[in-house]
Amino acid sequence: MRLDVVTIFPEYLEPLNVSLVGKARARGVLDVRVHDLRSWTHDRHHTVDDTPYGGGPGMVMKPEPWGEALDEILGGADGAAESGEQPVIVVPTPSGKPFTQELAVELAARPWLVFTPARYEGIDRRVIEEYAGRVEVREVSIGDYVLAGGEAPVLVMVEAIARLLPGVLGNAESHRDDSFAPGAMADLLEGPVYTKPPEWRGRGIPEVLLSGHHGKIARWRRDEAFARTAANRPDLLERCDPAALDKYDRATLQALGWWQGTDGRFWPSGQTVEE
């Protein structure tokens, strides 16, 4: 997979040289290219921003350097089509669609991603409109808060995407039971995990994990996932599909204080459902 990142702070992306992503780059699994946007400016101050039309606080990133940068990276207007690799431009912005595990899986299947982390009040809207007419553009938010720039979201998204690629994780099955991962544990947070020693500071580990009984261990992990999800993300349980729950799941939820409505869905104790 090829990843391009255009930024005015290339040094912010140094973490892409360490840990799993850094190792994947070294092995050639990831081709990461970080570009300095100021390389496409032509004044002595390397200006990348200006005041917004219509007034208001803050500055807006100018379209000219972004246009020149993206044209060169994409190989001109027709370069992507000629190469046979269709890139996806990913625009980190708090006004974008939520970045989810599902979206990470989708983007991990694409051969080429171009990230455009902005600063100030964002990028002149015409840049987004220009390239949406050429390639696929995704405006993505990592959460309901505002940061000083889009570089941190890029680091978050790259790590979430990269770890899904074959050859990045040491154990290819490691992400199967992740929180939010598609499959049997979808819509549940991952439960607690333990390792050696069996006792630490007077604290042991659940006996079931030492039993060697795979069925009981799987049930314990699912029950713990329900408990953690009910405590930290009840919204996930409220929208889960009742058809995906077995009788043991229902018993666990009831023990946690949830009740089943006439529509089959579960709700926290004391919450009323509007018809």
UniProtKB/TrEMBL annotation:
Domain tRNA methyltransferase TRMD/TRM10-type, residue spans: 1-238
Cross-referenced SUPFAM superfamilies: alpha/beta knot
UniProt catalytic activity: guanosine(37) in tRNA + S-adenosyl-L-methionine = N(1)-methylguanosine(37) in tRNA + S-adenosyl-L-homocysteine + H(+)
Gene Ontology annotations of biological process type: methylation
Family (UniProt): Belongs to the RNA methyltransferase TrmD family.
HAMAP family: TrmD (MF_00605)
PANTHER family with a match to the protein in the record: TRNA (GUANINE-N(1)-)-METHYLTRANSFERASE
Entry protein name: tRNA (guanine-N(1)-)-methyltransferase
Gene responsible for this protein: trmD
